[in-house]
Amino acid sequence: MAAPAAKASPEVSRIVIENCAIATVDAQDTEYASGHVVVAGNRIESIGAGAAPAGLENVVRRVDGTGHLVTPGLINTHHHFYQWITRGLATDHNLFDWLVALYPTWARIDEQMVTAAARGSLAMMARGGVTTAMDHHYVFPEGSGDLSSAIIGAAKDMGVRFTLARGSMDRGASDGGLPPDFAVETLDGALAATEATVDAHHDASFDSMTQIAVAPCSPFSVSTELMRQGAELARRKGVRLHTHGSETVEEEKFCHELFGMGPTDYFESTGWLGADVWMAHCVHMNDSDIAAFARTGTGVAHCPSSNARLAAGIARVPDMLRAGVPVGLGVDGTASNESGELHTELRNALLINRLHPEHRERALNARQALRLGTFGGAQVLGRADQIGSLEAGKLADLVMWKVDGLGHSTIADPVTALVLGAAAPVTLSLVNGLPVVEDSHLTTVDEDTIARSARDEAQRLARVAAQPR
Q1: CA–CA separation, 72 vs 277, rounded Å?
Q2: Minimal CB count within 10 Å: which of 81, 175, 263, 437?
Q3: Residue 280's closest CA among 313, 327, 316?
Q4: Is residue 374 within 8 Å of residue 388, measured between CB atoms?
């Protein structure tokens, strides 16, 4: 039975997709072996089995979805776009050694470099089915330009929905932190710049394309006062909070040595647990930590490839889900996940979590992995009533994956084909009802131009970083 139609005025342009398998990822995990989706303007008007309703007016496009699976658009919940121009470096390092190796280079970025890196990161994700992107940007070298506006502008040009987590660091090397002193901000400067970014760019509306979160970087690069006042700022402004948490055993040791408590207790002491908060990684969580996240509704951005690349460990995602913790997926920065893609994280989340000795083959299945990358991400970003599932009245962010080609044609179940098969080509991706990808190519930007620009800026950054400051 079709979901109830969301009423739209007759003059609204409609796109009709038919003859496709559909995984709605709604609360009942409703699926259709052959069904339809009707998009009216920027909303999903109707969805269900069989052909679309007869007599639809102002249909501007009909798409034959034979051989395809339609899903909600993928939602990325953790990333660092600027790292696109430092891929392939420090490939055999753990987190702290990797940061020490790369911070001197990252501290030399400027607006032109960040623009090119953001466009590269966004293009790679969007081409692979991401309709809502997120960037946690926390490196603001003095004199580097308006980096936040540059990142937001790149997302607008790409046509994807976007959350900028305006990061900050105020604990430089002279205060026991990892970044060079010239790459950090003052406490007052970070708070003022963050508030200005919220005021200039945050849109809280239902169909918002740009939202801002308050996002001090991590316990080992941020003062306790910046954590506390950052949380107060976010709640005063009505925006979400984001940071890194419990990523490595070294971080846990750092917190115990510096604060006399583990990361989760430290976060709670500074106001950083709550339904408006999500943390990246959360690899080293004990039962008490997971219970605290579940009790407070604190979300998690699970980044399986980055965690493996930096040898951080295996996050206890099945235990988090069982406890009721909201969990989404993240690419993380492309200096620790060189592919820069989120659709591969569906597969990696399933496979890596099955390596956990307590969960093994029962850790995650294909549909749970798809939910992490869609509705789970929407929960984590605070937008579950707008995106993350295909339901009448929700925003028209969806992806049509080709699953009848060489890489998938012998896998009978289309969701299994998407998650465990080779990376599925994207035939069509809609964001807000508008095409961003057609036949595996971006419609809004030129991929070759983006690639050349990012290469040139990566080479320029390498030259700049080699010069004495």
Answers
A1: 23
A2: 175
A3: 327
A4: yes
What confidence score (pLDDT) does residue 77 get? 98
Residue 178: the pLDDT is 79
Q: Report the C-alpha dihedral over residues 79, 85, 88, 90, rounded to 10 degrees.
A: -80
pLDDT of residue 2: 46
Q: Which two tokens stand for residue 18?
A: 């038919």
DSSP string, 240-306: EEEEEES--HHHHHHHHHHHSS-HHHHHHHTT--STTEEEEE--S--HHHHHHHHHHT-EEEE-HHH
CA distance linking residue 394 with residue 397, whole number of Å: 8
The parts of the chain modelled with pLDDT lower than 50 are 1-3
Rounded Cα–Cα distance for residues 176 and 146 (Å): 28
Find, among 244, 134, 182, the residue nearest to 469 by Cα. Answer: 182
For residue 70, report the phi and psi dihedrals to the nearest 5 degrees. Answer: -105, 130
pTM to 2 decimals?
0.96
Whole-number pLDDT of residue 1: 39
The per-residue pLDDT for 9 is 66
Look at residue 218 in the predicted model and tell me its pLDDT.
92
**CA-CA distance, 299 to 164, in Å (whole number)?**
17
Amino acid at 421: G
- Three-state secondary-structure class, residue 155: helix
Phi, psi of 280 (to 5 degrees): -85, 135
Q: How far is CA 240 from CA 138, 186, 232, 278, 295, in A?
A: 16, 22, 11, 8, 18
**In which element (H, E) is residue 120 found?**
helix 111-127
Q: Please give the Cα distance from 250 to 159 (Å, whole number).
A: 39
The helix (run of H) or strand (run of E) holding residue 212 is: strand 210-216
* Structure letter (DSSP) for residue 207: T
Q: Which residues contact 357 (CB under 8 A, 6 or more apart)?
A: none
State in Å, rounded, how far the first CA of the chain is from the last one: 66
Q: Give burial (CB, 10 Å; 0-12/13-18/19+) of 277.
A: buried
